[in-house]
Write a structure and sequence with these properties.
18 strands
Amino acid sequence: MFHKENRPVAERRDSVPVERRYVYKDQKKLRRGYTTGTCSAAAARAAAWMLLSGQAVEQVHITTPAGIPLALIPEEVVLEKDRVSCGIRKDGGDDADVTDGILIFAEVKRKEEAGVSITGGRGIGKVTAKGLEQEPGSYAINRVPRHMIREAVEEVMEIHGYEGGLLVTISAPEGEALAARTFNPHLGIEGGISILGTSGIVEPMSEQALVDTIALELSMQAAAGRSCCMMTPGNYGMQFLSGVLQLDPGLAVKCSNFIGDTIDMAPAYGMKGLLLVGHLGKLVKLGAGIMNTHSRYGDGRMEVLCACALEAGAERKLLKALLECVTTDGAVSLLREAGLDRPALGILMKKIEYHLKRRVYPGICIGALVFSNVHGLLGQTEDVPRLLAWVREEMKMPGREFETG
């Protein structure tokens, strides 16, 4: 992962080869960045080098697990006899998140026991829930970053012929304040950010981070002993779960636009039931088999509703008006005025059920419940009552009856 050559850690060179600094996506030239894990490993390498050599460095060279070399600049260096601390500034490239631009620090100091120990400090979150990569009580420094940090420091120890022990403490002074803007509180990580990354490189506009977060949430559901999982695309669904269904939204997986991916991943975490709760504006697309509901993959909202209305007996004038609607709430209002909302939405639910059951693995019970912020509960597939009872039983919550509005 890291070069073993005996060269100065501060060797000056271009930080990333020109041909690997950018990627092209959707006909745009986008700049790559590097992860908090890479920052941590680079800071630890630089601090270890300064501690064992007694000399400051201007640059630190590191090669990421993706094979991309970087030359990064240590900042806010504190150089003392028995400890050295320095920071590396996070660069998210053109996929910047809340950690973009913050300093990730590593403090390295000698310890009596041989080998490298890694811990967290200020601004690094602690794991409080089961099912995450690190055990409860541990700092949220994931496996690959831990390996990167350890290997970087061990290489420096080998170069300097040091056979003692070093303690590495990773910190992010801004991490505690920023954590509220991440998924960490929902995942059960408290007090700061996570140190993440598998390739060490941030790919611009990558969707993988979101998919990985969904996998973590499914893992936590499994670790809590649940076999029936609630899933919802976003905040509207969370509000509906708590307000109308009186279920704990904190126990739902927020799947964003990745409905198909979430369905595909569920069996790996032992899920036997999936209850999808979402706004019509998102879930109507399932009626056409669109399983990633981001607009870049297709819209079709009004076309699907128009097809359902046609099957329910709508006249041409109404069909034309539906196609000209801007919102699904507006379309439902038109269907309601014509007295066709129930039959049209009933047809929609059958289409949604058909495509969900085609996508899901055999033996898994799946259902969808669709609502509108304006019109309330609009429809549900056949297995929703069973899935709701299943969810309530696992959550040890009383049942609640409701009707489609």
